[in-house]
Specification:
By secondary structure, this protein is mainly α. Helices cover about 75% and strands about 0% of the residues.
């Protein structure tokens, strides 16, 4: 139980950082991003680069039944969005695909999660306006 609470707090901390960066259109300091990316890799069980190769359905299938599935879905979605935001404009197809998968995963969490998040809803709306 303590381990699960700790994992949830770590997930929530990373999610909050990424949401603020996305909403404020600012970059996360490289050293901080490296630290959070390493934690994300540990929590999700795969590196961000591998995560970006999966579509939303594959990510949902990967964590279905996991005790922390909703937190992992949301963390994966925000990681995809952050990766997309950091991609160079010369790879627009990859950037767009990664962003769409992040949005689709975030919408899935918003629609099916047992918890409602106003912050998540606002982020989805802001992402769709861009």
């Amino acid at each position: 139980m303590i381990k699960q609470d700790y994992l949830l707090r770590m997930i929530q901390e990373i999610i909050a950082l990424i949401v603020q960066a996305l909403l404020n259109k600012r970059k996360i300091d490289k050293s901080h991003w490296t630290e959070y990316d390493n934690l994300t890799t540990q929590l999700l069980g795969l590196p961000s680069n591998d995560l970006s190769q999966l579509d939303a359905d594959a990510i949902i299938a990967r964590y279905r039944g996991d005790a922390d599935s909703w937190g992992k879905y949301e963390l994966a979605a925000l990681t995809l969005l952050k990766l997309s935001d950091d991609m160079a404009n010369d790879s627009l197809v990859e950037k767009s695909r990664t962003r769409q998968n992040g949005i689709a995963l975030l919408e899935y969490v918003q629609a099916h999660s047992p918890t409602f998040s106003l912050q998540r809803l606002q982020l989805i709306e802001a992402l769709k306006r861009d």
